[in-house]
Specification:
InterPro entries: Asp_endopeptidase, ATP-grasp, ATP-grasp_RimK-type, ATP_grasp_subdomain_1, Peptidase_aspartic_dom_sf, Rimk_N, Rp_bS6_RimK/Lys_biosynth_LsyX. In the C-terminal section; belongs to the RimK family. It is a single chain. The protein is elongated. The protein has four domains: 153 residues, Cathepsin D, subunit A, domain 1; 86 residues, 3-Layer(aba) Sandwich (Rossmann fold), CATH 3.40.50; 64 residues, Dna Ligase, domain 1 (2-Layer Sandwich), CATH 3.30.1490.20; 105 residues, D-amino Acid Aminotransferase, Chain A, domain 1 (2-Layer Sandwich). The protein has 465 residues and is of the alpha+beta class. Strand 6 and strand 7 form a beta hairpin. Helix content is 22%, strand content 33%. The two termini are 42 Å apart.
Length: 465
């Protein structure tokens, strides 16, 4: 016959599902429910599957050490504390671990700075075979707060639900729908935010972002899908998220630089990344000089902010190039003149780069009679094996812009890969279909690794008693 579990009035316990490997808990048979001392409690997720996330400061003497936790909500319950105050609390369920034994326990979440113990174990959280010795303390093996070093917590950190925002004006596109579907399949809450309906408060002490009249909550990650037509405002919103400390998959500076073709080519040139010979001038008097720099016709003339192949013209002869340049100047449009890589034969390579890795590569072939291989222009896509040089070039190009997710377009030339463009909002449909890979899944692998719970050092919070 096994001996009953003996508990003192205080014990060391663990809540592994919440990433809390060591807590000092008070055992109180006078209380019915168990409680966890939580801060910044915030509900999220759909009404059909509500969740709650919060911060936990497990070491009373170190209020700057915060563990981010999340769990499904099992109830909301009015609880009366020992001082007679009634409070409506969220209730979660977690596994309590003590001396090799594990059992489920319901925990109410409360933000009370006066609580000396980070956890209180009430009658409902005590196993039936347990014996409580109120005159004793630490009847079970003692743990240590040393487990909260960054390396150790990362080893035991559980999966937790994340709250993720997708900045997009097009919730029904393939890419946005896949981001939502894949995130929700993994238990995360993914919210599509219309970029143009966000607005900001610029305040030195409390900058914030609002949406539909309410302040947006704090997100674990933001996935920007900023369209080319709203780049200035879209990047301003991303920059505001960066200002308030939210991790953005692609930063505002990288999106801005990649959208301006002149700026983008200057970034590539600074990093000594191969690209077609490119020239830019402002004065009409320099048209002939531009042609001399790029070489003999045919040449490519493209608007600085062209996307999806629009605003890109192939000039077959020198006279045709001069006519296109004259027309663009008449529209007061900024443009580049670029070498036409004949040996590419209307094909380019799109590499999807995530977190410094090429996750997929596809070959895009232009439709008959078309020189642009963009899928929006009728091009077709197929899986392709890339060379080591092409892989390294794509990774370097994405890194040059500081992009966590990028579509890098390469041309295969006689003297090695040439970068045509770095896209900060690459579409997933063509790449997933052609490669057969779950690219959104790979993206969430990267986001989850980046947002995995670990001790966060907070400043400016006074010690709790």
């Amino acid at each position: 016959m096994t001996e009953p579990l003996r508990l003192g009035w205080e014990e060391w316990v663990a809540l592994p599902d919440l990433g809390l490997p060591a807590l000092k808990a008070k055992v109180d048979t006078g209380a019915k429910t168990s409680a966890l001392h939580a801060f910044e409690i915030e509900p999220f997720g759909p009404a059909s599957n509500p969740k709650v996330r919060f911060l936990m400061y497990p070491v009373p003497q170190k209020p700057e050490l915060a563990i981010a936790c999340s769990a499904p909500v099992v109830d909301r319950r009015e609880v009366t504390s020992s001082n007679g105050e009634a409070e409506l609390r969220y209730v979660i369920e977690s596994k309590l671990q003590l001396d090799g034994r594990t059992w489920p326990v319901e925990l109410t979440l409360t933000d009370r700075g006066s609580m000396q113990y980070r956890m209180l174990i009430g009658r409902q959280g005590i196993p039936e075979d347990a014996v409580v010795a109120p005159q004793d303390s630490f009847c079970q093996p003692e743990l240590t707060y040393d487990v909260y070093s960054s390396a150790k917590v990362r080893e035991v950190a559980p999966d937790r639900s994340l709250r993720i925002a997708v900045l997009s004006r097009e919730p029904d596109t393939y890419s946005t729908r896949r981001l939502v579907e894949e995130g929700e399949k993994r238990g995360h809450t993914v919210e599509v935010i219309d970029t143009l309906r966000c607005y900001m408060t610029l305040n030195a002490m409390a900058p914030d972002i609002y949406y539909d009249g309410k302040r947006l909550p704090r997100y674990d990650a933001v996935i920007p899908r900023v369209g080319a037509s709203i780049t200035p405002y879209g990047t301003a919103i991303v920059r505001q998220f960066e200002t308030i400390g939210t991790w953005c998959l692609n930063g505002s500076a990288g999106i801005t630089a990649s959208r301006d073709k002149l700026h983008a080519h200057q970034v590539l040139a600074r990093q000594k990344i191969g690209m077609p010979v490119t020239a830019f001038a402002s004065s009409p008097k320099d048209t002939a000089n531009l042609m001399n720099i790029v070489g003999s016709a045919p040449v490519i003339v493209k608007l600085l902010e062209s996307t999806q192949g629009k605003g890109v013209v192939l000039a077959e002869t020198k006279k045709a190039a001069e006519s296109v340049i004259s027309a663009f100047r008449g529209l007061k449009a900024n443009f580049l003149v670029q070498q036409f890589v004949k040996e590419a034969n209307g094909e380019d390579i799109r590499c999807i780069v995530m977190g410094g890795r090429v996750e997929a590569s596809i070959k895009r072939s232009a439709a008959a009679g078309e020189f642009r291989s963009n899928l929006h222009m009728g091009g077709t896509a197929s899986a392709v094996k890339i060379t080591k040089a092409e892989r390294e070039t794509a990774i370097r190009a994405a890194r040059a812009f500081g992009l966590g997710l990028a579509g890098v377009d390469l041309l295969r030339s006689d003297d090695g890969p040439k970068v045509l463009e770095v896209n900060s909002s690459p579409g997933f449909e063509g790449a997933e279909t052609a490669s057969g890979k779950n690219l959104c899944g790979a993206l969430y692998d990267m986001i989850e690794k980046r947002a995995r719970p670990a001790p966060a050092r907070k400043r400016g919070r006074s010690s709790q008693s």
